[in-house]
Amino acid sequence: MSDTIYALSSGRPPAAIAVMRVSGPGALYTARALAGRLPETRRAALRALRDGEGRLLDRALVLVFPGPDSATGEDLVELHLHGGRAVVAVVEQALAALGLRRAEAGEFTRRALVNGRIDLAQAEGLADLLAAETEAQRVQAIGAAEGMVSTLVRGWSERVFALSAEVEAALDFAEEDDVAVDLGDTGRAVAALRAEIEEVLARPAAERLRDGLRVVLAGPPNAGKSTLLNLLAGREAAIVSPVAGTTRDVIEVPVVGEGVAYVLADTAGLVVASADPIEAMGVERARAAAQVADIVVWLGDDAPPGEAVWVWARADAAGRGEPPEGVDVVTSSTQPGTIATLWRVIAARAAGLLPQEDRPSLNERQRALAGEAAAELVSEDDPLLLAERLRQARVLLARVTGADATEAMLDALFGRFCIGK
Ligand SMILES: Nc1nc2c(ncn2[C@@H]2O[C@H](COP(=O)(O)OP(=O)(O)OP(=O)(O)O)[C@@H](O)[C@H]2O)c(=O)[nH]1
Ligand SMILES: [Mg+2]
Predict the structure, then answer these.
(1) Does ligand 1 have an atom closer than 6 angstroms to the CB of 225?
(2) How many domains does the chain have?
(3) How far apart, in whole angstroms, are the C-alpha atoms of residue 21 and residue 92?
(4) Where residue 292 sits, what CATH number does that domain have?
(5) Where are the alpha helices (DSSP H) in 222-363?
(6) Of 79, 119, 141, 184, which has the fewest beta carbons less than 10 angstroms from its beta carbon?
(7) What is the residue with the minimal CA distance to atom 23 of ligand 1?
C-alpha cells in the first residue's frame, strides 16, 4: 500500500495560482479535513481550506479525481491556491500535519506507471515533453507520451505472438499425423517482420532531436570559425582575434534555429604539427569533436574531408579573391544575409538527420531492445528452435514498454522529472 503524497505541481511562487496535488489512499480524507464537504467528482468548486483548529488558510478551488481513473491511478485531489509563498507554505504544513509526505521528483508519474495508467515508453515521452524546448521536440515527445511508440511495439509483439501460435500448431499437427513440419510461410512472415523492425531502427534516434544536433565548426587557424560561431549563436560566445590559434578548447553553444535544437561547437584551428603542446591538445580535441559531429561545417580553402558543409568565410576580407569550385556557402561577417543562408543550408542537412515528426522514433534504450528482438527473428528449420527465438523476441519487445522495468531504471528516468509531476 502506498502512502499519500503531496507536491506543488505549478511553478515557483509567487504566481497567480499554485496547484497543490495530493495522491494516494488518504487523498479524499485529506481534502475533507481541509475543505469540508467535497465538490462533485471532476468538478471544480470553491472551498475554504481550514487547518485542525479551524483557522482559514486559503480559499481555493478543489478538484477531486477518484482512483483508479485518475492521472496516478489513485485517489487524486488538486487544490488551486492563491500562489503566494506563505499560502503554499501553510497548506504544505497542514498536509504534513495530516501525515502526508512530500512527493519525490516524478513520483506522481511513477505511480501512474506502477498502476498501469501509462507504460514505460509513454513515461519516457512525458519526460521528454517536460524538457521540450522546440516545436519539433514537443511534437515527438507528445507522440511518445500519447503511446505512438507503445502502439508500434505492441503491434510487433502481437505479430510475434501470432507467429508463435502458428509454430505451435504446426508442431501439434506434425506430432498427430507424423508428418514433417512445413514452416515456409511462417519463416517468410518472420523475415518480413524483422525487415519492418529494421526499417524503424534505420530511422534517426529520438535523442538527436531531444539533445540537439551537433554542428562542429572546423578548419585551419584564423579561418573565421569563432566569428561564425558567434554570428550563428547570436552572441559573443567565443573569443575572436587576428592571432592564429586563438581558440584552444571546444566551445559549445546550444542554439535553436527554425524550431530545431542544435549544439554548435567551435574548435581549435587544425594545424598539421604544432610545437605548442596546448595547441596540439586543442587540435586533438577539435578532431575528436568533428568525429562525433552530426554536421561538420568546414572553413578551409581546400575541399572538406568527408561530407561537411563547405563554407568559404571572410569573403569581404582584403585579397580574399574568388571562392573555389564546390563551396556550399560563402559568408562574411559584414553581410548578415550570408549567415541566414548558412542557417538554411544547415537546416536542410539537419532535416535528413532528424526523426520525422509524424513517425515514431525510438530512443537508445528502445532501439537496443528492438534490435535484439529483430536479431531473434530469423527463420529456423527446427520448429522448436524457432518457437524459442520467437519467445525471446517477445520478452525483449515487452521490455520496451517496461513489463519488467528495474527500480534503478525507474529512479534514473523519474530523476529527470520535476517535483510535482
Ligand atoms: N573581414 C573579415 N574578417 C573576418 C571575418 N571573419 C573573421 N574575420 C577576422 O579573421 C580573424 C580570425 O577570426 P576568428 O573567428 O578568430 O578565426 P578562427 O578560425 O576562430 O581562428 P582560431 O581560433 O585561431 O583558429 C579575426 O581577426 C576576425 O576578425 C569576416 O567575415 N570578414
Ligand atoms: Mg577561434
Answers:
(1) yes
(2) 3
(3) 11
(4) 3.40.50.300
(5) 225-233, 277-291, 336-353
(6) 184
(7) 247
Question: For ligand 1, is residue 333 a contact (CB within 6 Å)?
Answer: yes
**Whole-angstrom distance, CA of residue 253 vs CA of residue 262:** 8
332 in contact with ligand 1, CB cutoff 6 A: yes
End of a domain among 66, 88, 114? 114
Q: What integer is the mean pLDDT of 354-360?
A: 86
Average pLDDT value for the chain: 93
Q: At what angle do helices 120-131 and 107-114 cross, to 10 degrees?
A: 160
291 Cα to the center of ligand 2, angstroms: 18
Q: Cell 509454430 belongs to which residue?
A: 167
Domain boundary among 98, 114, 130: 114
- Distance of CA 262 from the midpoint of ligand 2 (Å): 19
Q: Name the residue of 311, 314, 334, 338 whose CB sits within 8 Å of the most ligand 1 atoms, as the mutation to test its pocket.
A: 314
Q: Do 43 and 103 share a domain, yes or no?
A: yes
Let me know if residue 126 belongs to a domain.
no
Q: What is the pTM of this model?
A: 0.82
* CA 246 – ligand 1 centroid, Å: 10
Shared domain for 232 and 341, answered yes or no, is yes
Task: Tell me, yes or no, whether 272 and 378 share the same domain.
Answer: no
* SS3 of the chain: helix, strand, coil, percent, to 5: 45, 15, 40
Residues with CB under 5 A from ligand 2 (ion): 225-226, 246-247
* Residue 254 included in any domain: yes
pLDDT at 1 over 50: no
Residues 222 and 347 in one domain: yes
Question: Does residue 102 share a domain with residue 156?
Answer: no
Joined together, the cell numbers standing for residue 149 give 511508440
Q: Within a domain: residue 139? A: no
Cα of 231 to ligand 2 centre, how many Å?
13
Contact 264, 212 (CB under 8 A): no
Q: How far is the CA of 243 from the centre of ligand 2 (A)?
A: 9
Q: Ligand 1: which atom is nearest the Cα of residue 331? A: 31
Residue 246 has pLDDT above 90, yes or no: yes
Cβ 247 under 6 angstroms from ligand 1: yes
Q: Is residue 133 in some structural domain?
A: no
Residue 52's domain is classified under what CATH number? 3.30.1360.120
Q: Which residue segment(s) compose the domain that 58 sits in?
A: 5-114
256-261 average pLDDT score: 86
